[in-house]
Design brief:
single chain, 560 residues, mainly beta, 4 helices, six-stranded mixed β-sheet
């Protein structure tokens, strides 16, 4: 019996679809010149586009993506939020699940979708290359099944990102060599354009055309490197219906808060007088660390005949350091949790992890580094600053290679102190090592992230590869083993893959360790990840072939 074959040209990609919901994409990574803010630079992008082209699939599909690296450096691609059941080989983080694709080489990723439905994204997972190598993933419901909300008139994808006038790889290489802060970005972009509020940026603005009375589904991705963002549209209500490719109870709001790594699906009805309205996004940042405090803009533009205003109407956004405004939004997010979209929060916890997250320093013997007191900036989890190995952890685990990692990552911090108070010098200087946490297949895991006041307290968007997890609780101050669990939401907690840990606060999450493999866990503020706020979780194989890792593909990139 034959099968149908279809060929499409989609968003600049060559897409081949054959039989049983299998898609084939080709990504060409190459240097291309872009001009923003009167600055022209060459940067690595996918298929000549910034942001990169969208991948379109349906729930439960598989996509094979052949990545050709024509750039100057090795690179990998991560499929952010795709759980990749039993398939860590195609997850992507460099020297965690694979070695980089070297210049002139290619590698085909098998991206296995399972329960995800909504919007996710892909990005490079090598150094800071994700600043320019990223794009959205649109996951539609299965054929014959509708959205759990009225069908929108049209769908649009919006990608927030960072723009650096200089070479991004050189920027982070210099920072890591000197031990100091990397330079902040020069602008933020919305669908590749900084907008009208920057110098030398008058005509570089994205415009979203809408018809009065129609409802639009906006698929929002935060690909920004180091800042969370508030976003709003002047005079228009945002109805958030999904986060991290899982449906939530519709949340009506005048603004949203989205952290780097997070995605949202948002309904907007064009119910105002025909005109032009600003879409604005600017950081939420309540720390003393340096950050890009600029605002990116786009225009929601009604079609039809009218006299456009001299300046579009602007929305009212919370102040950049409005901690309460941030919490008021995030605390309202609840899972849809219906019969058609059930949740399954683990209740019989067999593995508990309490993880402090801190910005630290590593002593430079001659005090000649560019960090505080002449030392090198670092970051840690449970006072361990992660040291990325030269051979990927997955290969070492699969082949039982010694000397690559150790299995002694602590389940609790080595020192108990007033984490969010006067911390003194308790854990200013962390240990360094490639320490991983091994978890039995099928374990029901509760993990608490505790922010600290060590050196500089900040918000931390924490991301776990290979899983979505339930955000069952959060709060300010120190987590209390007796009272804090009384505040847990076990009825309809949102199911996410990236969660913001509030400055000097805590977040509790739960998941079932039913995905065997090697999975990266890290802060999605890129400077913190570069400094060592990372860890690896190894979930052991289960008792059957169906609960064990699949075999590696034959053409994994070689480690140099």
């Amino acid at each position: 019996m034959g099968f149908l074959i279809f060929f499409f040209i989609l968003d600049g990609l060559f897409l081949f679809t054959a039989a049983a919901n299998v898609h084939h994409y080709s990504f060409l990574l190459d240097e291309k010149n872009f001009t923003r803010l009167c600055t022209t630079k060459s940067m690595l992008v996918v298929n000549g586009q910034f942001p990169g082209p969208a991948i379109h699939v349906r729930r439960g599909d598989t996509a094979f993506v052949n990545v050709h690296n024509n750039g100057k450096y090795g690179v990998t691609i991560h499929w952010h939020g795709v759980k990749q059941p039993r398939n860590p080989w195609s997850d992507g983080p460099e020297n965690i699940t694979q070695c980089p694709i070297q210049p002139g080489k290619n590698f085909t990723y098998e991206v296995i979708f399972s329960t995800e439905e909504g919007t996710l994204w892909y990005h490079a997972h090598s150094d800071w290359t994700r600043a320019t190598v990223h794009g959205p993933i649109v996951i539609l419901p299965p054929i014959g099944k509708a959205y759990p909300f009225p069908k929108p008139y049209k769908e649009e994808t919006i990608v927030l990102a960072s723009w650096f006038n200089g070479d991004v790889k050189q920027l982070i290489d210099v920072a890591l060599a000197t031990g100091g802060e990397p330079n902040i970005s020069d602008a933020f972009t919305l669908n590749g354009w900084p907008g009208a509020l920057y110098n030398c940026s008058n005509e570089t603005i994205y415009t979203l055309a809408v018809e009065k009375g129609k409802t639009y589904l906006l698929r929002l991705v935060n690909a920004v490197m180091n800042e969370e963002h508030f976003l709003a549209i002047a005079n228009h209500t945002l109805t958030v219906v999904a986060q991290d490719a899982a449906y939530i109870k519709p949340l009506n709001t005048s603004y949203i808060l989205i952290a780097p790594g997070q995605t949202m699906d948002i309904l907007v009805t064009a119910n105002q007088e025909p005109s032009q309205y600003y879409i604005l996004a600017r950081p939420f940042f309540d720390s003393n660390s340096p950050f890009d405090n600029t605002t990116t803009s786009a225009i929601l533009q009604y079609t039809g005949n009218y006299t456009p205003p001299s300046t579009p109407l602007s929305p009212i956004l919370p102040a950049m350091d409005d901690r309460l405004g941030a919490f008021n939004y995030t605390s309202r997010v609840r899972a849809l949790a219906t019969k058609d979209y059930p949740i399954n929060v683990p209740k019989n916890i067999t593995e508990r992890l309490f993880i402090t997250i801190s910005v630290n320093t590593i002593i430079c013997p001659s005090a000649n580094c560019s960090g505080p007191s002449g030392n090198r900036l670092a970051a840690s989890m449970n006072n361990v600053s992660f040291d990325t190995p030269d051979i990927d952890v997955l290969q070492a685990y699969y082949r039982n290679l010694s000397g690559v990692y150790t299995t002694d990552f602590p389940s609790r911090p080595p020192y108990i102190f007033n984490f969010t108070g006067d911390v003194g010098n308790n854990t200013l200087h962390p240990d360094q090592g490639t320490k991983v946490k091994v978890i039995e297949w099928g374990a029901e895991v509760e993990m608490v992230f505790q922010g600290t006041n060590v050196l500089l307290a900040e918000n931390h968007p924490m991301h776990l590869h290979g899983f979505s997890f339930y955000n069952i609780g959060n709060g300010f101050g120190n987590f209390d083993n007796e009272s804090s669990p009384n505040t847990y939401n076990l009825v309809d907690p949102p199911e996410v893959n990236t969660i913001g840990v509030p400055k000097t606060g805590w977040v509790a999450l739960r998941f079932k360790a039913d995905n065997p493999g090697v999975w990266f866990m890290h802060c999605h503020l890129e400077r913190h990840a570069s400094w060592g706020m990372d860890n690896v979780i190894i979930v052991k194989n289960g008792p059957t072939e169906e609960t064990s890792m699949i075999e590696p593909p034959p053409n994994m990139p070689e480690c140099s």
